[in-house]
Amino acid sequence: MCGIVGYIGDKNCLPILINGLKRLEYRGYDSAGIGIITNGDSVLIKNKGKVSVLEDRVGEMNLEAPLGIGHTRWATHGIPNETNAHPHTNEDKSLFLIHNGIIENYRTIKNELLKLGYEFASDTDTEVLVHLIDSFINRGNDLCKAVQLTLNEVIGTYGIAVIYKSEPDKVVVARKGSPLVVGLGENENFIASDVSALLAHTKQIIYLDDGELAVVSRDGYKVKTIADQEIEKEIHEISMTLEEIDKGGYTHFMLKEIMEQPDSVFNSMRGRLLFDEGDAKLGGLSDVTNRLINSERIIISACGTSWHAGLVAEYMLENIARLPAEVEYASEFRYRNPVINSNDTVIVISQSGETADTLAALREAKYRGALVLGVCNVVGSTIARESEAGVYIHAGPEIGVASTKAFTSQLIVLALITLLVARRKALSADEGKLIVNALRRLPEQISHILNLNSSIELLANEFKDANNFLYLGRGYNFPVALEGALKLKEISYIHAEGYPAAEMKHGPIALIDENLPVVFIATKDSTYEKVISNIEEVKARGGRLIAIASENDDEIDRLVNHTIKIPDTVEMLRPILTSIPLQLLAYHIAVKKGLNVDQPRNLAKSVTVE
Ligand code: M6R
User: Fold this and answer.
1) Do 3-242 and 452-595 show the same overall fold?
2) Atom of ligand 1 lying closest to residue 352 CA
3) What is the pLDDT of residue 20?
4) Pairwise CA distance, residues 310 & 255, whole Å
5) What's the 406 CA to ligand 1 centre distance in angstroms?
6) 261-269 helix and 429-450 helix, angle to the nearest 10 degrees
7) Which backbone phi and psi does 482 adopt, to 5 degrees?
8) Is the CB–ligand 1 distance for residue 598 below 6 Å?
9) Taking the alpha carbons of 487, 493, 499, 504 in that order, is the dihedral positive or negative?
10) Which among 292, 406, 496, 531 would be 20 to 30 A from 16, CA to CA?
11) Which fold has domain 3-242?
12) Is the Cβ atom of 607 under 6 angstroms away from ligand 1?
């Protein structure tokens, strides 16, 4: 959630830290700060609000330093203000510490430290770390040892970076549950919570694993466990480019990412379609294909938009591959004592690959002997590395907090997994070819939908002042209704609910009046006639109707106030098309309300705390 960046080397760290924090701001954006050590002096600058405020203050101070750490915060303990912002420091300001995660036993540690005479400035859980490190240094330990001893006492999750005025030749970082990478340069090295902060400087990356600590200096690095065992780490070459994480002329990352979907969807299936066989080729699953197809059951676990992708996959796997499938919120799965057998396959879906609840579900499923597969976007992310096997969605970096292109790419990969299994079970080559050909047509069909952008913008104008929205769909389009509602509420702050269309009469119908916009996803599929009846029911009660409909459907126009017509595809792939107008609708409503669509209030891109 929070962003962490740090530098040690020959250059002035300040522009590196500020630019790194700007790259990380999507991870948390309620306050920001930096701590630097320069010429035997330590300087701390922090504030509530954006990195741009910090940048202005740093600019006025005209500072230079070879060593520093920076942080952008998403508050867990203590309101967003200057005192609660990171870095946190000790009494003589010789130590600076930044933290992502939650220290669960901070009250116990704090009480012990209070007894020792320590005073606390902030309401955060983090501050105990810096005072505890200070107390170990005062007992004769160096910085690295003091960090190790501190972390031995801590229960919770952390990615931390610490610098110390008396040891200005190093940054000490450690992780448990929150991502941290070390970036390697010449006469300089970097640390960050996310490679995007380092892309301008290096592509050589080391991923720390849970329970590991690194001492990073200008000329090198040493990785060991918290328990002090040295470890050799692999150096990874990052393929992501700076252009991929820029707005590329768009006003918002979200719009750029929506518009990228013809390409991102293509990239998700590139090299993975077998046209002649009507099959899919997924290198990441080659070692486990037999175990996957012989699974008795598939359990999918994820959060938010990724959970919605899982719901679509449940329909795909059951309808096409004839495999029983269940979908679980990762946050519930981990505490529910789920029944998991060694014949089950658990698929965890996560754009970021760092979501704490999804990671915990993965670990629980592994512990219980299931085959665990990861479907992730971020290469090298924790979930990707801890899964036994998996498939990257290759959607490219997604910076907007509202997930868009990752959702459609997740659906592509889940369709490919379904095809792979189905072709080894009951699906004929001809049926497989129909799906492969439909997949191949998707990028062009998505471009066609994106051309409707300006008419969807006009629609947004009409509906931007609504207080509530209802989204209804059936079958494959039921999860799309949920996703449409989530998109709208998270960026426009309009209350929205998604329901299976037929459930409407069991309660939500009471909400319908002339003020309630009702969005039906009503493509011509197996439940079309039933959905039309539901539309009639809303119309009879005066609801304002919008329909996402098939382009050859002329009937529906007489029933609804507005239609968005989209091209047709096979039923299992329809959510990839029907979700896109809903992304655009949410986007334009939020923009028209003057809201920050890329960084909506209270949210963060990657939820690394419970
Ligand atoms: O990175 P993940 O896919 O694991 O994230 C899961 C959710 O936090 C995420 O999808 C969230 O719901 C998005 N903000 C939705 O747009």
Assistant:
1) no
2) 1
3) 96
4) 24
5) 9
6) 160
7) -65, -45
8) no
9) negative
10) 406
11) Glutamine Phosphoribosylpyrophosphate, subunit 1, domain 1 (3.60.20)
12) yes
Selecting among 2, 144, 303, 376, the annotated active-site residue is 2
Catalytic (active site) residue 376 = no
Please indicate whether residue 261, judged by its CB atom, sits closer than 6 Å to ligand 1.
Answer: no
Protein residue with least CA distance to atom 8, ligand 1 = 304
Contact 50, 25 (CB under 8 A): yes
Note the pLDDT of residue 310: 98
Q: From the DSSP assignment, how many helices (H) and strands (E) are in the chain?
A: 18, 27
Q: Is the CB of 304 under 6 A from ligand 1?
A: yes
User: If you measure from the C-alpha of residue 540 to the centroid of ligand 1, how many angstroms do you get, rounded to a whole number?
Assistant: 37
User: Is the Cβ–Cβ distance between 594 and 580 less than 8 Å?
Assistant: no
Q: Which residue has the tokens 């967003």?
A: 80
Instruction: Kindly give the parts of the chain with pLDDT less than 70.
Output: none
Closest ligand 1 atom number to CA of residue 603: 14
| Closest atom, ligand 1, to C-alpha of 404 | 16
Q: Is the peptide bond before 87 cis (omega within 30 degrees of 0)?
A: yes
The residue ranges of every structural domain in the chain are 3-242, 247-449, 452-595
Instruction: Pull the structure tokens for residue 24.
Output: 């990380």
Rounded to an integer, what distance in angstroms lies between the CA atom of residue 179 and that of residue 254?
A: 24
The CATH architecture annotation of domain 247-449 reads 3-Layer(aba) Sandwich (3.40)
Given the structure tokens 């409909």, which residue do they identify? 549
Whether residue 110 lies in the annotated active site: no
User: For 31-74, what is each residue's pLDDT tens digit?
Assistant: 999 999 999 899 999 999 889 999 999 999 989 999 999 999 98
Per-residue model confidence (pLDDT) at position 356: 92
The pLDDT of residue 30 is 85
Closest CA to 232 of 212, 210, 257: 212
Note the pLDDT of residue 313: 98
Regarding the beta carbon of 403 and ligand 1, being less than 6 Å apart is answered yes
Which amino acid does the sequence have at 265? Answer: V
Positions of E strands within 167-309: 167-176, 181-184, 188-192, 204-207, 212-216, 221-225, 230-231, 236-237, 273-274, 279-280, 297-302
477 pocket-lining for ligand 1 (C-beta < 6 Å) = no
Residues in the chain: 610
Indicate which atom in ligand 1 lies nearest the CA of residue 383. 4
Ligand 1 pocket test, pick from 254, 305, 404 with the greatest ligand atom count within 8 Å of Cβ, gives 305
Residue with CA closest to ligand 1 atom 12: 304
Q: What integer pLDDT is reported at residue 505 of this predicted model?
A: 85
Spatial separation of the C-alpha atoms in residues 235 and 422, rounded to whole Å: 38
Per the confidence metrics, is the pTM higher than 0.70?
yes
Query: CA torsion, points 169, 27, 303, 545, in degrees to nearest 10?
Result: -170
Cα(108) to centroid of ligand 1, in Å? 33
CA-to-CA distance for 160 and 162, rounded, in angstroms?
Answer: 7
Q: For residue 306, report the distance from its CA to the centre of ligand 1, in Å.
A: 6
Q: Taking the CB of residue 165, how many other CB atoms lie within 10 A of it? A: 17
Q: Which residues pair with 221 in a beta bridge?
A: 216
Give dist(CA 89, CA 99) in Å, integer.
12
CA of 479 to the centre of ligand 1 (A): 15
pLDDT at 118: 97
